[in-house]
Design a protein that fits this description.
This protein is mostly helical and 375 residues long. The chain has helices at 2-40, 46-67, 73-88, 94-126, 128-147, 149-152, 155-173, 176-183, 190-195, 198-214, 220-228, 234-255, 267-272, 275-284, 292-298, 302-313, 319-334, 340-345, 347-366, 368-374. It is elongated. 36% of the residues are buried.
């Protein structure tokens, strides 16, 4: 009887412990739910808007320099012919002129590829804001070289300026769309966590982190905007990058018409105006804080990260943001690398991969790039 009573007491004790554990789990879930709701209630403050405006000037540079070379094509080709005749005393045939102009256009992309390789190192060594500030030195140098092309009677200076401005713009723009899409699948994104099973979330997160290490660090502007934005605004504010590119492209086309700067005397100034966004960013950006995620995760400067968040959120209640970044850091440390073969073979990742490829192919095959950037 004593043994039976002892067993009953043990069972009762276990039941009480289970009940206490359930209450603890309920309290933890309620706390987590309240924390997520507070994250979702964060709004767009004045200082956050200012920081985003200062950052997207880099994207404006990309859009402007992508389209600015097209409108004055005839003027630039005539300039190349004149320079060649002054140097060598003979006319340059049409095929050679087209080749030189093609070099001026395409060397922008070559500089962009080289800029992409060094962007990650710059972002991690100097920070997101520091990298953008240093990047403006390239932007100003390239714009000044293009501006002085006609004064120096050197189309080689145009090539060199376009190359430097390509390095500058790629450091701002590489894979912007992918950055926005992948950030929407971050573990910190509440809607994704609700819709997907845990295994799928982890797999998507690992794929995103792997991709980020190999390419997205070259995208300084989208990275900075994403890391300073609150959770509920991150997706929407990510679209500002592409908007700035489009505005820059439109601005270059409008200024390039013959009635404004698309003339034999005006096209050097048209190319040189690319210096304006870079100079403006150099003035505005130093006031902005560094990325809190960079300060906390990369540099391990927690107090500096808190100060940056207080300025961006206009509030002292930043614990939820700090906890979100710490959760991302823990997930980053616990992640396993994923190979290209695993990316292709995984049913969870293969469908988004195919969708992304088809969307990019559709954009290219539609001819929109030829319409918006060349014609």
């Amino acid at each position: 009887m004593v043994a039976i009573k002892h067993e009953l007491d043990t069972v009762q004790q276990v039941k009480e412990e289970i009940e206490e554990l359930r209450e603890y789990v309920d309290r933890l879930e309620e706390h987590t739910h309240r924390r997520k709701l507070r994250l979702l209630e964060q709004g767009l403050t004045f200082f956050l808007s200012y920081a985003i405006l200062a950052a997207v000037l880099g994207m404006l540079q990309f859009g402007y320099n992508t389209g600015v070379i097209n409108a004055p094509q005839g003027n630039i080709e005539n300039f190349m012919k004149d320079v060649y005749k002054k140097r060598y005393g003979e006319d340059l045939n049409d095929d050679s002129v087209e080749m030189l102009y093609s070099i001026a256009v395409s060397i922008f992309a070559i500089g962009g590829m080289l800029g992409g390789f060094g962007g990650g190192m710059v972002a991690n060594k100097f920070g997101r804001k520091g990298g953008l500030l240093l990047n403006n030195v390239l932007g100003i140098s390239g714009a000044c070289l293009m501006w002085c092309t006609k004064i120096a009677n050197s189309y080689e200076m145009l090539f060199f300026g376009r190359f430097i401005i390509g390095v500058n713009c790629d450091s701002d723009f590489t894979l912007t769309k992918v950055s926005r899409a992948m950030h929407r699948h971050s573990l910190a994104n509440v809607s994704t966590v609700v819709r997907l099973p845990t295994s799928a979330i982890k797999e998507k997160y690992k794929a995103w982190r792997k991709y980020k290490r190999t390419g997205l660090n070259t995208s300084l502007v989208p990275m900075y905007i994403s890391e300073i934005s609150p959770l509920n605004l991150r997706g929407g504010l990510g679209t500002v990058n592409q908007l700035a590119v489009t505005v820059g492209l439109l601005l270059s086309q409008v200024l390039g018409i013959e009635q404004i700067l698309g003339t034999n005397d005006g096209w050097p100034l048209l190319l040189g105006l690319a210096v304006c966004p870079a100079l403006l960013q150099l003035v505005l950006l130093p006031i902005c804080p560094e990325s809190p995620r960079y300060l906390l995760i990369t540099k391990q400067w927690e107090e500096e990260a808190r100060k940056a968040l207080r300025r961006l959120r206009a509030s002292n209640a930043v614990e939820e943001d700090i906890e979100e970044m710490r959760a991302e850091e823990r997930a980053q440390q616990a992640e396993a690398s994923i190979s290209m073969m695993q990316l292709i073979c995984s049913p969870t990742l293969r469908a988004p991969l195919v969708i992304g490829i088809v969307m990019q192919l559709s954009q290219q095959l539609s001819g929109i790039n030829a319409v918006s950037k060349i014609i």
